[in-house]
Design a protein that fits this description.
279 residues, alpha/beta, 7-stranded mixed beta sheet, 7 strands, 13% strand, globular
């Protein structure tokens, strides 16, 4: 496998009301269906050779709307179980416990631990790699994407932007190492929000008056630092084109390729316009 495309399902009925669903089998909302339809042309241009989907309804619906009604069901891609929190309003939960859960340190009563969840989703990738296909699409859940970024690219949950509905994240594989090529991409560009996020769910605190460019730079820098600290995992350039890599604390060159890394760009036309290297 040379490239892994990760798409979170569109907004579900419970997403719309900020209720935790975990493994509850909740369908897409009408808005969620529209979100996935809008993303479909971009995913199609990336030409996946193998399509896998979580067996939960919201993911299966999303796979169909992406143009893959016969996507193979992969139960290992189910969302993390939230135990007694299933169906609870996010706003009614203790903020500290919810934040701890998002960071992988708190397990709700009857829920799945982050370690078990990470191992389960990792097995799905191992099985996909054994298929020998170049580009694999997984239609799954926000938690699954965060777990795979942690397991494959060394990005701890607390350093990952909330994964929004119907968003595309791309991992490239080179010499056995994973590289983050695109994160939270929509047909209109980069997304920095998600319906299940909270004001404290991202450790980068900014004043409202600060520019959007500063937010992108801050988030990219934090992700880069987390990536750089993981042994054997290559880093990627800051999302702010005006910032030099050295300013963001990023090595100026990719040791494996000997070339300066380029920031990924969001687009809805061709893989090259996403900043993705050739497969």
């Amino acid at each position: 496998m040379k490239r892994l495309l990760l798409v979170r399902h569109g907004e579900s009925v419970w997403n719309a009301t900020r209720r935790l669903q975990g493994q509850a089998d909740i369908p897409l909302s009408e808005r969620g269906q529209d979100q996935v339809r809008a993303l479909a042309p971009l995913v199609a241009r990336l030409a996946p050779d193998l399509v896998l989907t979580s067996d939960l309804q919201r993911a299966r619906q999303s796979a169909t709307l992406l143009g893959h009604p016969k996507a193979r069901l992969q139960p290992l891609l189910r969302e993390i179980s939230v135990g007694d929190w299933t169906g609870e309003s996010i706003d009614a939960l203790d903020p500290g416990l919810y934040q701890g859960w998002r960071e992988g340190s708190h397990v709700p009563e009857g829920g799945e631990s982050w370690a078990a969840f990470s191992a389960r989703t990792g097995r799905a990738v191992d099985e996909a790699q054994a298929e020998g296909q170049a580009t694999v699409l997984m239609v799954c859940h926000g938690g699954v994407i965060r777990a795979l970024l942690d397991r494959l690219a060394g990005l701890a949950p607390r350093h990952i932007l909330p994964v929004g509905p119907a968003r595309l994240t791309v991992l490239g594989f080179r010499n056995g190492l994973a590289r983050l090529e695109a994160l939270n991409v929509t047909p209109g560009g980069l997304s920095l929000d998600a319906p299940d996020s909270t004001p404290t769910a991202w450790p980068c605190v900014l004043q409202p008056a600060q520019a959007r460019r500063s937010l992108i730079s801050c988030c990219s820098t934090r992700i880069a630092r987390a990536s750089r600290s993981a042994a054997g995992v290559s880093t990627f350039a800051t999302g702010d084109p005006s910032m030099q890599p050295e300013q963001a604390g990023i090595p100026p060159r990719d040791a494996s390729a000997g070339q300066r890394l380029q920031p990924p760009r969001a687009a809805n036309t061709h893989p090259a316009e996403l900043g993705l290297p050739g497969v």
